[in-house]
Design a protein that fits this description.
The chain is an alpha+beta fold. Helices cover 27% and strands 25% of the residues. The relative contact order is 0.16.
């Protein structure tokens, strides 16, 4: 059995404790910027995923209902009752398009984008219309105020201050919805941008 020398207590000395605290501080100082970049990149990924899911829902509803639907970015927190399409909206909304004069457009679903990822910005068209075949279509008055759809491929860019990985959500004329990383090349990485 080991015996301690008389008068000596077990534990850490003040010098050992200070060295440990200084080393932990240095490790935190080195790792903190990388961790903050990771947090910002995660927010960008979350918003891009939400945007992609909203676009895919609009396309799926157009196919399911066999009628035009409109995907809109909006700042409205109640898009079921009041909806104005804006290019840099914090939320998204999917509505059916009114085809006949005596018909009313139906609200389908809405989602939140940038309150989930505060500090994240989205640039791209305010609205996109899908026809009954799931393809992009031109419609100058699809229903929501400020919405104007063109039959052209659309690109949404999702980025944030402090992030080193902006993402793109692409919608082709044929209706393919895809998220990609502009820092990667599509010929070498499946999630790269063309």
């Amino acid at each position: 059995m080991l015996k301690r020398p008389a008068g000596r207590m077990a534990g850490f000395t003040l010098i050992e404790l200070m060295v440990t605290i200084v080393l932990m501080g240095l490790l935190l100082a080195v790792g903190f910027p990388s961790m903050m970049t990771w947090v910002h990149n995660s927010k960008v990924r979350t918003v891009a995923d939400g945007l992609q899911n909203g676009l895919r829902l609009a396309q799926a509803e157009a196919l399911r209902r066999s009628r035009q639907t409109v995907f809109s970015l909006t700042n409205s927190t109640t898009p079921a009752t009041s909806l104005t399409a804006v290019a840099d909206g914090r939320n998204w909304s999917v509505n059916s398009v009114k085809l006949l004069t005596d018909e009313t457009a139906q609200f389908i679903e809405a989602g939140v984008l940038t309150s989930v990822g505060s500090g994240v910005g989205i640039t791209g068209p305010a609205s996109i219309c899908f026809n009954s075949l799931g393809r992009l279509v031109t419609n100058s008055d699809p229903g929501p105020t400020g919405a104007n759809c063109t039959a052209a491929a659309a690109t949404y860019i999702v980025s944030a201050t402090g992030s080193d990985r902006p993402l793109r959500v692409l919608v082709t004329l044929g209706g393919q919805v895809r998220m990609c990383d502009p820092a990667r090349n599509i010929s070498t990485s499946p999630d790269g941008c063309p």
